[in-house]
Fold:
Amino acid sequence: MSQVATSEAERGTEVKSYKNYIGGSWVESKTGRTFNSVNPAHKDRVLGVMQASNAQDVDAAVGAAEKAFAGWRRTPAPARGEIILRAGLLIEQRKEELARLMTQEMGKVLKEARGDVQEAIDMGKYAAGFGRRPFGETVPSELRNKAALTRREPLGVIGCITPWNFPLAIPTWKIFPALMAGNTVVFKPASDTPIMATRLVEILEEAGLPGGVLNFVTGNAAEAGDPLVKDPRVAGISFTGSTTAGRQIAEYCGKTLKRLGLELGGKNAIVVLDDADVPLAVDGALWGAFGSSGQRCTAASRLIVQRKVEGDFTDLLQERAAKMKVGDGLLPDTDMGPVINEAALKKVHEYTEIGRREHARLVHGGDFAGSDGWFYRPTIFADGRKDMRMAQEEIFGPSTLVMPVGSLEEALEVANSTSYGLSLSIYTNDLRKAFHAMDELQSGIVYVNAPTIGAEIHLPFGGTKNTGNGHREAGMVALDEFTEWKTIYVDYSGRLQRAQIDTGE
Ligand code: NAP
Structure:
C-alpha cells in the first residue's frame, strides 16, 4: 500500500462544495452547516463538502415534489421514459469517470465499481421501457355492455433513502421506477457516498427532468432521514439499509399507514456438498465473501460445507485469501478495498474478537491491514456452529465462517437457521439435490453453482424474513412498491345493472 493512486478529483487542491437540489435549483442548506465526504482508502483526503440538511430543507424538498406531482403524473409515460433512457445513456457515456469516483468515495475496487455503474445503466434502459408497457388489464365483465379494466396509478411523493454500498445502482433501482410510475421523489442518500448521489441527480437534470420532479437533500439519518419519513405529504418511503433502521421506519409507517418498501440486512450462505466442484466453490466463496470487502447485503458470510470436502475447501480458501492484495481500489493489482469508515472497521474487528471467544478457529486474517485507510484483512474462521453470534449476525465486512455439516438436510437446516432471508446458494453436481435445495431454502434469492451475489436488474430482488417486508425491487414487480391499482367499471348499457344480482341477460 505504499503506492498511492491519484485521480483528477484527488489531484486538485481545492475541495468542491456540493448543494441540495430543490424545485429545480441547486441550493445550500438552511442550516448553514456542512459535512465532508472522505476517501476510505486515504482517510485524510476530503473529496467534497456537502450540505448538512435538516427538517427545514426536507420540508422545502417535499413541498417542491408535491407541487410538481400534478404535472409529472399527467406527463405521458413514454415521454417520462425518454428522460430516463437519456439518463441511462449519459451514465453509460460517463461510466469510467463515475466508476473512478465511486472507488474513491466508497472504496470498492474499480472493476466492481464499473459493475455498480453498469447496473444503473441497465436499470435506466430497462425502466425506460415501462413507459411503453401495459400498466393494467382489460378483462370481461359479468354483465352486458359493461367494461372492466385496471390500471396502475402513482402514489404521489416518494421518499427514497439509500445506503452507501451500491451508491449508484441502488438509488437508480428506486428512483427510475418511482419516476416512471408518475411519482415525484425526494432522495436522501447515505452520508458516506453523497457525491455519487449528486452526480446521479445532475445527470437526471441534464436528461431533461422537469424541476421539482426529483429533489435531493444530503444530511444524516436523524436530521434529514427522519423528517422525510415523518412528513405527512410523503405518500411512500422506499428504504434500503440496516434491519434496525428499517424496523424504526416501519413502526412509524405502520402507525400512519404509509406505504413502505424495505430492503434490509442479510446473513447469506453458500452450501458446498461433497459432490461439488470444490475449486469452483472456492472461487464463488472468495467472490461472495470478499467482493466489495464483504459489504454487500448478499455477501456470503457463512460457508456451510459437508465434512468430506471441508478440509480441502478450507485449505484452498485460505491459500487463495492469502494471495489477495488489500489496498486502494484504483490500483490495478488490488483485490479488495477498504471498509467504508472507522465504525465499520471497528465492527469487523469486534466480530473477530467474538469469533475467538466463541472458539471458532481463525484460519486467516483477523487484523487490520494498514493505517492510511480503513483496511481489514480477508478473514476466515472455521469450526463454525449455527448458535454462534458470528453465524447469526450481519458483520458487513470481509469476514466469513466455515461451518461443517454432515448431510444435505443438515446443510439446509443450518442455511435456514438465521433471522434473515436474502440470498442462499448451493454448490452440487447432483440435479436432484439442487432441486430439493431450491424447494427448501428460505430466501428471496437462490443460486445454484454460483455465489450469493450477482443480481440482474430484470429479475425481482429482495428477501424474506427480517430482510424486508415483502416488497421486491427490480424486474417488472418494482412498480408494485410505487403504484396503487385502480379498478374501473364502465357501464354503457343505459340501465341499472347489479353485479351478482342481475344475470346479464
Ligand atoms: P443504515 O445505517 O440503515 O443507513 C441506510 C440509509 O438510511 C442512510 O441513508 C442513512 O442515513 C439512513 N437512515 C438510517 N436510519 C434512518 C432512520 N431511522 N430514518 C431515516 N433514515 C435513516 O444502513 P447502511 O449502513 O447505510 O447500509 C448497510 C445496511 O444496508 C446493511 O444492513 C445491508 O445489508 C443493507 N443493505 C440491504 C440491501 C438490500 O437490498 N436488502 C442492499 C444494500 C444494503 P446516514 O447515511 O446519514 O446514516
In short: The domain at 10-264+468-486 is CATH 3.40.605.10 (Aldehyde Dehydrogenase; Chain A, domain 1).
